[in-house]
Amino acid sequence: MKENLVKQKLINKQPVLGVLSNSADPTIAELCGFSDLDFYMIDGEHSPVTTAQVQDIVRACEASGITALARVRSGDPKLILQFLDAGVMGVMIPGVTSVAEVEALVQAVKYPPVGSRGLGPVRAADYLLGSMSQGEYVQYANEQTLLLPQIETVEAVNNLEALCQVPGIDGFVVGPRDLAMSMGYYDGPANSEVRKVIAGIVETVLKAGLVIGTTAATGDQARALIDRGVLFCLNSVAGLLRSAAGDYLKGKEPAGQPS
What we know:
The chain is α/β, with parallel strands linked by helices.
């Protein structure tokens, strides 16, 4: 298993910026890596990406020096196992609301004695042909694997202090759009009440000594979040393309007339 550079940066209190991608094309991941982003998160929830395609996407990430992560659509331990066995170095799980769910995620993501993840001769373990012994690999994998449940509902917010006490998690990522919907604000997360709740989430998670992350549509937004202690910032591939295209298309606009 490779060193998880994103997790190491987060441990060192350094910000990481990356993208959530619903593309099954490994070339997109490779391009993101050569663009110096920190992580490429495969979206296994809102996308047609299959577990059979994950392995090639992870290979593209490794070739271009970007850390491969994944949003797995559910807490099904066998599904999580397939993503991790393919070489994904961390998972973000949507829709988590209870302590029992978070504890189950730790069991799915971590090998014994921390969890109950099954071990096989798979890519993540160098097919058990690498230089590490089995014991060394199991310990190293537990240290390197990143686990970030998502906070997306009012119920999760109400349970957040208890969720932060579950051993084995690295932090949480706020899903602002779904959180706004859960709060009854269907036009998006810009509402002042939603922003207030998100600020409270950030404060609670940081107080617990954990990583907090959320979405950042622009570099300015990312900088503002980082100033507040939010070290894990993600955009989408589509969002980056749209903003870059908008900047590029400004070249078509006529120059201002001299006064």
